[in-house]
Predict the 3D structure of the following.
Amino acid sequence: MNMTTADMTNSPYKTIWNLSWPQILMMLFHLMIGLVDVWVASKLGREIQASMGMISQSLFFFLVIAMATANGSVAAISQSIGAGMMLRAKRYVGLCFIIGAILGLIIFTVGFPYRNGILTILQVPEEMRYVMEYFIEVFLYLVPIYYMLIITNAVFRAQKKVMLPLYSMIIVTVTNTIGDLGLGMGMWGFPNLGYKGLAWATFGSITMGAIFNVIVLIRSGDLRRKCIAPLRWMKSAFPYLFKVAWPSGLMQLVWHSGYMVLYSITASLPENNVIALAGMTAGIRIESILFLPAFAFNMTASIIIGHYLGDGKADEAKKFGYRILFLAIGFLSITALLLWQVIYPVTAIIAPEQVVLDEAVNYLYYNMLAIPFTLTSMIMAGALNGAGATLYNLFIFAITVWGCRLPLAYFLGHEVLNSATGIWMAMLISQGVQASIIFYTFSCRNWQKFSMIKKNNKRTSNE
């Protein structure tokens, strides 16, 4: 998309939709990956199904630096394009790619020796341990490749080339589905590897997506030697990328480690802990029908805010933040109401066992009530990411996750109700608190100062 900020201002809702629908579709393909994973896992046993949920959160823990670099790249590249500084934008593409490759290898090297210790921290039940040990080993091999996929997709989004991540996700989805059904269940003449097949299906699909992205970048000229900046430029450009990335990475660490602790709190319930874990895993997959499209609006907010701030139009950037928020709340609230009418048969697709199904619906009841709060947090956070104001996100999410959600989840789940219902209630309450704080921050704080625009409104020039 080659629309200028003036074009976007003239057609605000068309702009939001044109940027969002490919990303919504991309997220739906992402959802299909999770649904197929959990459905096949459910056919292999509740221990496998619960393990899929826990390993997904564990994998995100290792990917936080990639997500941080991705957020930094969206802010830097989108602001550079908005400012009309195309050389700077191309150089940031190369810099982000190099940083991602190096960091992916470092994370693998550091994390691999301690993989079993991570399972101990998670308090993985003994009956799930053998599955988790295999999952975490294969997924750690995948970390450097996953870094490339995440960062290259972010580069495309920052350039408003939102169709390319969609194509990449289609490749990942098709490959993963064939691998899950073939290697996981022995269909079409593939060897029946059971849970091991699920792990290798993920490995193969992410690898195919990353290869596609790298080929596109090379053909577009973004990764050619002449587009790689001199070392002197990298030294001058890296500080802004780092300023945006480190709070984002720490925030991701806070968020995903919080989910890991939440899994641990659930796993240590005095009764029905495996059922609660399996229900939570299935519930999260169904919730993704709403949660993942919300990510599309989150990413759209990052792109638009970055371009407007790069062009020095802070007031228009703020207006777009509100437009995206209200559009998303209206669209997804209606979707949530429609989904609730068929929640049992839909959830039963991936949670056929009755006790797991009941717990999954119980989880969904509280988390679907939180939809307006969740959307507010996600979209406002996306807007702040595009501005480079990731420090605000860090403080807000740290306070609400560790200061509110987790203590409340333990208190209600273990001390008051002695069931998973207390944990789901804590999630709803904490989302309300989080949404209130971040909406105030976006509305009343000077988050625009974090962009690459000097205080006198003159553009920085490191091109």
Observations:
- The chain has 17 helices and no strands.
